[in-house]
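Could you help me review a protein record that somebody else here produced? This is what I was given.
***
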Amino acid sequence: MLKTVPAPGGRDPSAIKILPANQVYVGATHAEALAKKRYMDNLVHIESNIPNLSIRLGVDCSKFDPDKLLPDLPTTEQGQGNQREWVALARREKLTVRELAKRAAESGTGEMVGTPTEIADQMEAWLMEEACDGFIIVFHTVPDGYEDFTTLVVPELQRRGLMRTQYTGNTLRENIGLPRPISHLDK
């Protein structure tokens, strides 16, 4: 899909790598993975979400009642398209300011929640559809989230041939097959 769009500036499309960031919650069962996500969600306080929502909407949201629907907002010169999208979401889903702020806080990365097989299925679908070239994995906790992913999901990805068992290059650039850019110092 996205990989089939011509590369900007005449660049070789294979020299552009798409690596979406995804927060992964994995468990032996789907319910266990979902419990991990809910636990982390409950640690976030509204006070830390409101400033983020204010930036996205271009208005000071700290003045709004967090448990009421989003009020009508003045149009701002900053990020009008972004504001329209967030307001439309709030209206469509009848979200309170608190719920909208939570959504805004979660929107920086994608999420994958499930068993090792479910997570691998999602990743495989993205890769087979050429929606991306790989993933940036965001761990909800360290070391537990990291250990869960490396001991539960990585073996499943390797079994499917979707992840290497060895790396031949010394750098990330070499291992994902990107050429070294020409430096202005090389000219």
